[in-house]
Design a protein that fits this description.
Strand content: 25-35%
Oligomer: single chain
Distance between the termini: 87 Å
Helix content: 10-25%
Number of helices: 7
Strand order of the largest sheet: 13-14-12-11-24-21-19
Number of strands: 24
Shape: elongated
């Protein structure tokens, strides 16, 4: 008599499931992670058993047949929506998963991240640098010795846009070419202090990467009771002082901000009066267009003195407002061409980058004072002031 072998009941029940799984079609998205901006649309692409499947039309063999009834669902529809043909529309910042499923198929998911304007905005390095007029240094600090390390400092600090002070005729003539040779080309807009046209004498300036920014609405004013006319300011009778102003457009995302670059006075009366002058001028600019405003420069004022302290009534000082983990380098900025000076002191802090603006329009990441030394015939700083910088995003 023939023996009849019977499968165990559990195994017998399992066989149809195994058989079914072998027949399942494998769905997969061609990308597993997608980043989008709000308002952007993306067409999803899939493969079915390794072959490209066009969600708008159907099988790869025909644009008229649709052999699989694939359904698409968004886990968080307020972040991104998806239609039946695989067109994803980003709605608001956040993360969602889109799942594709069909009868007789494995399911597939793709993660969609809708990025905020802050995430998408380029990070910009804003600086201030007193260049030290060319004829003051001697020995290893002489202009023909230090000018090459001064140019290199522009590259090493990664400035995208900065305000400069003490740009005399020699510096204006030579430094742009030296910086370009060191590795980066900038546009240099100088505002001189000693005639009404701002073309004569020592200058302040705004230096910027023209591939990243466009400057418009340029203007300037003197630090005096008659700011629109060439004039000395109060008890500052040895030097005319001037401030350059411009609206800056960030080409990558169209964001805008005002930038003011200056060199503050030495006179006590002038210093005290300049506080309100800067604030009034900034308010005039912002009345035209509600934008963040940056004020940079050698203020010739310590943090506890009237000018620097008073400016904090309107602007933010990153040394005071940023967490310590986002501040780098010494507090002091005036090295006085002395590499042995102890720079971590407010007694030597006279250079600033102030900023103001709604958090929805500016995000400040870090502040840095760079005390890097360079070797020529001896160790030197590039200038008698240390360069300072701020990393920020404009939204």
């Amino acid at each position: 008599m023939k023996q009849i072998f019977r499968l165990p009941a559990i195994l017998a029940l399992a066989l149809p499931i195994l058989s079914c799984s072998k027949e399942q079609k494998v769905l997969a998205f061609t990308e597993t992670n997608i980043k989008m901006a709000a308002g952007q649309t993306v067409q999803l692409k899939m493969t079915v058993d390794g072959k490209v499947y066009d969600l708008r039309w159907g099988s790869p063999e025909s644009k008229t047949s649709k052999p699989l009834n694939i359904s698409l669902t968004s886990e968080v529809s307020s972040v991104a929506s998806v239609d039946s043909k695989g067109l994803v529309t980003a709605i608001s910042p956040g993360t969602t998963k889109i799942t594709a499923s069909a009868k007789g198929c494995t399911s597939a998911t793709v993660t969609v991240r809708v990025q905020s304007s802050a995430e998408l905005a380029p990070e910009i390095t804003i600086g201030s640098f007193n260049l030290w007029i060319h004829g003051k240094g001697t020995g290893q600090w002489a202009w023909d010795v230090r000018k090459h390390v001064l140019a290199q400092a522009f590259i090493d600090n990664g400035f995208d846009i900065l305000g400069v002070q003490e740009a005399d005729g020699t510096i204006r003539s030579e430094l742009p070419t030296l910086v370009k040779a060191a590795g980066r080309e900038y546009e240099w807009w100088f505002v001189c202090r000693d005639n009404q046209a701002a073309t004569s004498g020592e200058a302040v300036g705004i230096v910027y990467d023209a591939s990243m920014f466009e400057l418009s609405d340029k203007s300037y004013f003197w630090l005096s009771p008659t700011p629109d006319v060439l004039s000395y300011g109060w008890d500052e009778t040895s030097y005319h002082r001037v401030c350059a102003c411009a609206k800056v457009t960030v080409k990558a995302n169209g964001a805008k901000f005002w930038m003011m670059a200056t060199h503050g006075p030495l006179g006590d009366e002038a210093s005290a009066n300049c506080t309100q002058l800067f604030i009034n001028k900034a308010k005039q600019l912002i009345e035209k267009e509600q934008l963040p405003c940056i004020l940079v420069g050698d203020m010739n004022s310590h943090p506890t003195e009237p000018l620097a302290k008073g400016l904090c009534d309107y602007w933010n000082d990153p040394v005071l407002t940023l967490d310590a983990s986002h501040r780098f380098g010494p507090r002091g900025t005036f090295d006085g061409a002395d590499i042995n000076r102890k720079m971590d002191s407010d007694n030597y802090r006279i250079d600033y980058i102030f900023y103001t603006g709604a958090p929805t329009k500016i995000y400040v990441k870090e502040y840095r004072c760079n005390d890097k030394k360079y070797y020529t015939t001896a160790d030197i700083y590039p200038s008698d002031h240390l360069p300072i910088s701020l990393k920020a995003k404009f939204l």
